[in-house]
């Protein structure tokens, strides 16, 4: 019996094509997914990104689904949030073939139930893995059919209905698609709007010839920053490979923190739905819950990870949720994450006033932060305990362990230390009143971790 634990992750299936993933195995995953959702739905919608292996693997998955008697609606090239739109609007379970920002040799499958409800380890992925490992039973009935459907225009229209940019002042925006799916969706979404798009790396190329399609790594937005300054743009937007995350830089080419974007979008959503609940993970700036509360909203803190965010949104009826990783979730988008919709909110806010983006976002950026700092360690638990022991005896310190170790210090500074689930790493995030205080706290914690 094969062991698939190395590629069936917490939220998706992901591995190296030709070594860990091939068409035969993906066909079995398709059949197993069909068995899982057969009682709920007669058809599955499938989309894929621009990687060389994606059309072949998505076709193999479709073969598996139809082998169990279910139909397939293929939407072809798509961003991940475009697949979520299809799942929500068509009320079908979905499968998206992408490895997001991972290198070209990887591919993967993100699965959801009808209405873009996520499928993770606890909600079906473990069952799918077990079915494939034990051998998918043959289906003796009639095979399903495959039909093709283009939903790009409908996706764009839906987003434009949620955020009206038609009355914006003229804006010049640089967009770095990183040779990923933003190059597929941006031209249609922004067509006809008073927004001049200066495109960078819009050519769909799964080999990522210009830079890794991960905008959270500072080296991958250097080209965007330079272009914004060169052309005098009002803002810059970088998308990751499957375009479900977006990262913003202002007119100076300076990065805008995802926490500031979370707060800005939260305020706009609260204006439409006063008193609503806003979800934020525990790595976002403490400015987020402060601003949400000041605007009459109810901030709710969660663990890191989209399964926790989406579950908490469903439980609380939240209108919006944001993560430090630049994932943004909207109730009006089936609680799914969409970088495009978040970017449109930022542009709408910018277009409604005459000042630059740096002035607009400064109101949502209250504290200094370190960003995520990774340390390779031999024993995650021992190092976590050493940090807890060091800070836990100090007067006025508060510690919680909702997700890793969160330490609140007198005076407002705090840090979170979390173990990676997949690597021998500890991830440190620090926030304080100013960069000097951040630097001092980072040095203090790292001295313990790396000793």
Key features of this structure:
metal-binding, 4 domains, 23 strands, 6-stranded antiparallel sheet, 7-stranded mixed sheet, single chain, A-D-PHexomutase_a/b/a-I/II/III, about 450 residues, Alpha-D-Glucose-1,6-Bisphosphate, Chain A, domain 3, 14 helices, alpha/beta, phosphoprotein, isomerase
3D architecture notes:
With 451 residues, this protein is of the alpha/beta class. The chain folds into four domains: 13-150, Alpha-D-Glucose-1,6-Bisphosphate, Chain A, domain 3 (3-Layer(aba) Sandwich); 154-254, Alpha-D-Glucose-1,6-Bisphosphate, Chain A, domain 3 (3-Layer(aba) Sandwich); 258-343, Alpha-D-Glucose-1,6-Bisphosphate, subunit A, domain 3 (Alpha-D-Glucose-1,6-Bisphosphate, Chain A, domain 3); 368-449, TATA-Binding Protein (2-Layer Sandwich), CATH 3.30.310.50. The chain is 35% helix and 23% strand. The chain contains 14 helices and 23 strands. It has helices at residues 23-37, 54-67, 80-90, 125-134, 152-162, 182-189, 222-231, 258-272, 287-294, 306-316, 339-351, 357-362, 380-392, 435-449, and strands at residues 13-16, 43-48, 71-77, 94-97, 106-113, 117-118, 146-148, 171-176, 195-200, 235-239, 246-249, 255-256, 277-281, 298-302, 320-322, 328-330, 336-337, 368-369, 373-376, 398-400, 405-408, 414-419, 425-432. Strands 1, 2, 3, 4, 5, 6 and 7 form a seven-stranded mixed sheet that branches. Helix 9 links the parallel strand 13 (277-281) and strand 14.
């Amino acid at each position: 019996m094969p062991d698939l634990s190395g590629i069936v992750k917490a939220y998706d299936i992901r591995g190296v094509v030709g070594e860990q993933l091939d068409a035969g195995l993906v066909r079995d995953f398709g059949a197993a997914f069909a068995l899982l959702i057969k009682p709920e739905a007669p058809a599955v919608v499938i989309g894929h990104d621009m990687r060389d292996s994606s059309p072949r693997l998505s076709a193999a998955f479709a073969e598996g689904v139809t082998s169990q008697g279910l139909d397939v609606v293929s939407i072809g090239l798509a961003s991940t949030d475009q697949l979520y739109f299809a799942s929500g609007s068509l009320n079908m379970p979905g499968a998206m073939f992408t490895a997001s920002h991972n290198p070209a040799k990887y591919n993967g499958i993100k699965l959801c139930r009808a209405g873009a409800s996520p499928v993770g380890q606890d909600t079906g992925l473990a069952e799918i893995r077990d079915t494939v490992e034990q051998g998918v039973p043959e289906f003796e009935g009639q095979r399903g059919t495959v039909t093709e459907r283009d939903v790009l225009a409908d996706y764009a229209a839906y987003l434009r209905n949620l955020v009206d940019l038609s009355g914006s002042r003229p804006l010049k925006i640089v967009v770095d698609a990183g040779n990923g799916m933003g190059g597929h969706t941006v031209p249609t979404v922004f067509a006809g709007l008073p927004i001049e798009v200066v495109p960078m790396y819009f050519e769909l190329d799964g080999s990522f010839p210009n830079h890794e399609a991960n905008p959270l790594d500072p080296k991958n937005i250097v080209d965007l920053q330079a272009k914004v300054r060169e052309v005098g743009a009002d803002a810059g937007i970088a998308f990751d490979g499957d375009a479900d995350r977006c990262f913003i830089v202002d007119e100076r080419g300076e990065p805008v923190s995802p926490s500031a974007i979370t707060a800005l979008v939260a305020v706009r959503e609260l204006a439409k739905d006063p008193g609503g609940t806003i979800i934020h993970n525990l790595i976002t700036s403490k400015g987020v819950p402060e601003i949400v509360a000041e605007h009459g909203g109810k901030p709710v803190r969660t663990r890191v990870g989209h399964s926790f965010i989406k579950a908490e949104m469903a439980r609380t009826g939240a209108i919006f949720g944001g993560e430090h990783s630049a994932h943004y979730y909207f109730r009006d988008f089936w609680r799914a994450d969409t970088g495009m919709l978040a970017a449109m909110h930022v542009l709408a806010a910018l277009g409604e006033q005459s000042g630059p983006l740096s002035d607009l976002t400064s109101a949502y950026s209250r504290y200094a932060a370190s960003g995520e700092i990774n340390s390779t360690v031999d024993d995650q638990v021992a190092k976590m305990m050493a940090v807890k022991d060091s800070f836990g005896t100090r007067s006025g310190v508060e510690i919680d362990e909702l997700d890793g170790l969160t330490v609140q210090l007198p005076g407002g500074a705090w840090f979170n230390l979390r173990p990676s689930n997949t690597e021998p790493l500890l991830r440190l995030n620090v926030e304080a009143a100013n960069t000097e205080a951040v630097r001092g706290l980072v040095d203090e914690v790292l001295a313990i971790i790396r000793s």
